[in-house]
Amino acid sequence: AKVEFTKTIKDMKVKEKQQAMMICEVSKENITVIWKKNGKEIKSDDHIKLVSDMKVHQLIIENVTLEDIGEYSCVTGDVSTSATLSVE
């Protein structure tokens, strides 16, 4: 069966210095997903954490800044889910 997103990420608005968390869920366990911001692949670092647990995949941004504004997407195979992060 083809993998699909059973829960998609949602547009969100957060205040500066807060934490932003985007969560999605896929139909199969232990699937590799790629997170992107404005089409460019994101790597985990001190600022952005990428967490995978079974079917749930999370992108967590600590201490949000204006530079984090943009469109985020989570991609696996030929399916994806995307959402916009805005900062106030």
Automatic annotation (TrEMBL):
Q: Which residues form the Ig-like domain?
A: 1-86
Question: Matching SUPFAM superfamilies, A to Z?
Answer: Immunoglobulin
Q: Does the keyword 4Fe-4S apply?
A: no
The record's Gene Ontology cellular component field reads: cytoplasm
Q: Does the keyword Phosphoprotein apply?
A: yes
Q: Name one Pfam family in it.
A: I-set
**Name of the featured protein:** Ig-like domain-containing protein
